[in-house]
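Researcher: Structure prediction, please.
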Amino acid sequence: MKRYRSVIIGCGHRAAAHIEAYRHIDNAKIVACAAPTPTRRDAVAAKYGLTPYADAREMIAKERPDCVHIVTWPDTRVELMTLVSEMNVPLCTTEKPLATSITDYKALCALADHTRTKFAVCHQMRWQKDLIACREAIAAGSIGSIPFIDISCGMNIAGQGTHTLNYGRSLIGDPKAVTVFGNTNGWDDADPGHPAPRSTEAYITFDNGARALWTSGPISPRAGDPKTTWQHIRIGAHASKGHVLWEEFGKWEIEGAAPSVGDFGGMDTWAKENSFAQARFHQAMFGWLNDDTKIPGTSFTASLHECAVIFALYQSSVEHRPISMEDYVPPDNLMERMRS
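Model: Predicted structure follows.
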């Protein structure tokens, strides 16, 4: 069995989840971490037995990893992903969203056109066991064909929107959006790393004929602790013979030929299942590295498309019309128009 070496850039709170997931992976090891702040990188290195680096370029040059995990703010994506690509790292995963500005999005599209690195975005709950069960029920045909999905989150669209869009698309075969018709409300700068409208709503049509209602922010259904904004990720699919529903911090249910129901099991169970899902995500990426045909639904191409859907929603909001996704290129001044 081939064994893989990984490193991580960024030593904030999300880094621990990426590192600890390696406890569940037999053929891969994380060996080093990089961050400009010594207190953060030294603490992470000491806790997990890693080699600390102040400079990501030096770490990659010395460690020669098979995989780099980028666990930093969205405004660092272009610089770090370009570095990884230039240093010919075979595989790289990054946190979501890929980009929150038009400039960064277009720079990443240009990178995607020539890079040899396999990039993927960390939508780890795509590999959570109950969401997998929902997908398997759909694949088995037990709830019939799916004309409609209902997907939502409590945080703004930059904070959780690409998660929900990716998870929802996973239920219906990862189709591409054809048209986006949406509206937005207000502007949320509470999290400076994830600026976005306070609330969004969109009606999406896909190239396989399915449709979606996609919401984010306070207008979304509550699916977890109402005192939080982040516990309300909700993915539903309505089919000809039944439905599936998955709430990350609530219930899940499959209604069809073989109905079943359950809940997320509380925060301790959630933490354990999140670690397993993170490990399955890593394993799927290593599987892709070993086999070009195993392209994940979280690939660079898929994630850039999901970014484009967000920008199309914004453009629909300011121009009051549906936006076609065929050869879609967001205008350079779109974010300024949104803010105004």
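Model: The chain has ten helices and 15 strands.
Researcher: Thanks, that helps.
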